From TrEMBL:
Domain Leucine-binding protein: 26-371
Entry similarity comment: Belongs to the leucine-binding protein family.
Sequence intervals crossing the membrane: none
Keywords from the UniProt entry: Amino-acid transport, Signal, Transport
Any coiled-coil regions, as ranges: none
CDD domains cross-referenced by the UniProt entry: PBP1_ABC_RPA1789-like
Superkingdom of the source species: Bacteria
BP GO terms, sorted: amino acid transport
Protein's name in the database: Branched-chain amino acid ABC transporter, periplasmic amino acid-binding protein, putative
Signal peptide coordinates: 1-23
Amino acid sequence: MRKLFTTALALFTLLCLSTVAFAAAPIKIGALFAVTGPASFLGEPERNTAQMVVDEINKAGGVKGRKIELITYDTGGDATKAVQLANKLVKNDNVVAIIGPSTTGDSMAIIPVVEKAGIPLISCAAGSKITEPVKKWVFKTAQNDGLAVARIYEQLKKEKKTKVAILTVSDGFGSSGREQLKAQAKVHGIQIISDDTYGPKDTDMTAQLAKIRGSQAQAVICWGTNPGPAVVARNAKQLGLKIPLYMSHGVSSKKFIELAGDSAEGIRLPSGKVLVADLLPKTDRQKGSLLAFIKDYQNHYKAEGDHFGGHAWDAVMLLKGAIERGGDTPAGIRNALEATRNFAGIGGVFNFSPRDHAGLTKDAFTLVEVRKKDWVLVK
């Protein structure tokens, strides 16, 4: 009888401890992703990844014994809706931090909201202007488009190609990329001899590409997110354009290859290392995290973990570390984020500071090329 009582008491104590672990109120984190709409190829893997990581954190006991509650809303890639939802997260849901949005336009739109409210934001979008100049409450995980431009220009210079044509989408991401392409050209000895744009919903870029074909351009750089770049790839092949075609990191997933089909062959772009994780040397600091993320995502969603889901993985894990070090108040989280050093994530090795809320260098990028409907490293 005594043994039975002891066993029952032990089980009761264990149950009580389990309950106590999450007895305190959960730590509420907001998430804004473009799960539907044209940018869903960004938002869906981001939403999936964020939930996957939060579930795993909670399964392991939460953060300092407290559960993380992820409150996710779909912006549909609409900046006006993003602002409404950001206000909802701040005023109604009482979140202590927000991750996302998926796009540069949505991110820029909600910056005034989080800055006024004093809520840390970790954007998953790439535009350099999200964190340049530095905003007190705003950080990001996607590699800056300025770093992507530098990686492309360095490769062109290596191949002695100095005359380029740029074709950028007329949205927040495209305009930010265009600014960087123009600003860095002279520094890298690059001459932009054609500067054209296309609309986010355009379905034919033949006119712009025909103009480029008749120029002295030695390479084309297209800056945009799906589906536009895939249209550019197909139109370029239809026109028989022979010069190299570079894309931005805005299409660094298998989705681009699916959309562009055979026209993707030979296209190059700068990307986070997750696309080629298995090809990285064992000495690469990110390789362990990258392979674990890819396997984890595959197990959960029966699909490949990609560059974009990686932005959300980094955002959640950076928040976890910040809460562990700085507490669960918005100010404590912000201060701890800004003090983050040497965090080896999916997008790169992050080092935030009061002067840098993007935290990455050009080493976060590798140059990849499409070969036989897959990504390979450009040597």
